[in-house]
Amino acid sequence: MVIMLIADESTEVRQALTRVLTRVGHHIVTTGDHFAALQLVRSTRPGLVILDACSPALRSVDLCRAIRGDPGSATAAIILTSACAVPSEIEAGLAAGADEFLFKPFRTDDVLSHAHALLSRPRPAPADPQGAWPRG
User: Fold this and answer.
1) Tens of pLDDT along 6-46?
2) Cα torsion for 3, 63, 97, 26, to the nearest 10°?
3) Residue 125: inside a domain, yes or no?
4) Containing domain of residue 63, as a range?
5) What backbone torsions phi and psi does residue 35 show, to the nearest 5 degrees?
6) What is the pLDDT of residues 42-54, one digit of tens each?
7) Which CATH number goes with the domain that contains 36?
C-alpha cells in the first residue's frame, strides 16, 4: 500500500481517482487546495502526489519545488494534471520536479497505469533542502 495525495479543486476528479486507486489497495488523502496540500505532504509523506496544475491559490510549480526541496518528501513521485496548460507551463512543471504531465480529461485507468509505473522506478536520493517550503 502506498499513501497518495490528490490535490485538485474538482471534487469529481478527487472522487474518481480515489475510487480507482483505493480499489487497488492504496491509501488516498485528498484536498481541493494546494496550501492544504503542503501541510498534507508534510504530515503524510505520500509516495505519489497528483496535482492539478491550474490551482489559483498556490502554483503547482511552487508546490513541486517545495516537495522536491524537503528531504521527507523529495522522493515522492509527482503527476501534474491540467485541462488548461500551455507548453511553457508543462515545461516549468517538469523542470520544478514533476515526473509526468497528464492532460484532462483523462481516463482514471491511465492515471493508475502512470502511477504504478512511477512507483516502480527507483527514486533518487533527496536533494539539499535549502529553502524547501514556501510560506503561505
Assistant:
1) 999 999 999 999 999 999 999 999 999 888 998 999 999 99
2) 10
3) no
4) 3-105
5) -65, -40
6) 999 999 999 998 7
7) 3.40.50.2300
